[in-house]
Amino acid sequence: MARTVFCEYLKKEADGLDFQLYPGEVGARIFNNISKEAWAEWQKKQVMLINEHKLSMINPEHRELLEKTMIGFLFEGEEVKIDGYVPKA
């Protein structure tokens, strides 16, 4: 049976993640408060960010930037700005 969470991003009950996908306290917060749907939205944004800014996951500053952006997107309602990207209306 799917586990449900109150998703802080969608502001509604939704299917939760099957397991913690991100390490540490932030990962626990995501696991407990973010739905599969919201995580999938973040992953799309993350790929665009990595590609646009040529981020390397080996670089601690790049990882920190991504984590900060992820927290803003998932928990604080911040839109991810990607140059030249226009979301479908």
UniProtKB/TrEMBL annotation:
Keywords associated with the record: Iron
Keyword Iron in annotation: yes
GO BP term, example: cellular response to oxidative stress
Single GO term (MF): iron ion binding
Keyword Iron listed: yes
GO cellular component: cytosol
Domain of life: Bacteria
Protein purpose: Could be a mediator in iron transactions between iron acquisition and iron-requiring processes, such as synthesis and/or repair of Fe-S clusters in biosynthetic enzymes. Necessary to maintain high levels of aconitase under oxidative stress.
Homology family: Belongs to the Fe(2+)-trafficking protein family.
Entry-linked HAMAP family: Fe_traffic_YggX (MF_00686)
Name of the featured protein: Probable Fe(2+)-trafficking protein
Source organism (scientific name): Psychrosphaera ytuae
